[in-house]
Fold:
Amino acid sequence: MSPAASARWAGVVMAAGQGVRMKSRIPKVLHKLCGKELARYPVELLQSLGISKIVVVVSPHNADAVRALLGGQVEYAVQPAVLGTGDALGRAETLLRGQADHVLVQGGDAPLVRRETLERLMACHLEESNQMTLLSATGVVTQDLGRLLRDDQGRVVDIVEAKHWQGQGQAPAEVNAGVYCFDSPWLWRNLARVEPSPGGERYLTTLVSLGAAGGARVQGVVTDDPSEALGINNRVQLAQLEAIQQQRIRERWMLAGVTITDPASTYIDAEVNIGQDTVILPNTHLQGKTSIGSDCTVGPGSVVRDTRVGDRCRITASVLEESTVEDEVDIGPFSHLRPGAYLECHVHIGNYVEVKNSRLGAGTASGHFSYLGDATIGEKVNIGAGTITCNYDGKNKLETHIGAGAFIGCDTMLVAPVTVGEDAKTGAGAVVTKDVPPGKLAVGVPARVREKGE
Structure:
């Protein structure tokens, strides 16, 4: 049972930082790591622990963007000026006072913290009846994180902020991971006692020395994985944490029964799902909210983005975007499914075929060099090499309909809007500008329907 189930917990995500070192017009917490915005990591982590009362502290410069991302699933507190983490947490007090027995605080730019680590931190906080329990990491070399100071009995007595540290900057140290559990009444009572630094900032870490001097129970819990303490302040660190998270994701899927033949060249976003016994070949990217079924082979050199792929499919050196692929479909090499493509089971898409906003019926095949846009194609249709649906008249996108069992000859131009009936045929090089009735053959430029005996 999660510790959140045994006590009233609230969560606070600190997301008001300016992110100046990112050198970006995008707010720092909206930059993506493994396809997911940084701000979503702590919010979803808190939700997974059963914490429903969550306050995200934002600043005037990013408030609208963060609200647009997270919507009504959280509450918001605004820190008007950059006056430190203590001031930022204080902005959430009016929303949380009396609403929870304990408060869990996490940064909005530290996405590597794991659920099992927070469960251990929260359990320690409750079992030891601490007023403050914080997460630390040992052996970390960083110039961004505050350092823990312990007394000769191992108790945490202070945290020295990175900018105030006078010791050797590159020496491994026990550092503050920026994740805290607080007894709620103690927090709000003592947060008001935090004095500003010479620079005018009120640091949340000052509560450590205040608590230790006042006899409060302040405890540090060391994480098993030092990378959990790492945050993101610039794009170098963004890339470094991306690499760590990618390795975690790949290992998770391999342990779940997915074969990844070359992990170093395979990229899988945080929200991707992959079925058992699927094989991911080198230089493949699975992005967004993609779902891959079981017993598939994807790659080499494929990009699949926000797409649902069924079982027993083969995708070779192709790009799939915002599409749906049913079971036992074969795609590629060098084909492209654009948004709105829907391939029913047993469809074959060969090389250099582009499909956009079209549905291909079960068993239909398009083997070579074709463009199918804004089309509805029935079952077991043969699309000859070089077929193009001429779907754009300069102003509007127009539809093509092809009935089940039709045979579309090589180099056919289907000038939409047009319908080719069931079991109809077009001759090689036909330019079809008028509907072809079921079972008929249309040939020529412009195509005309041949009658029996012609």
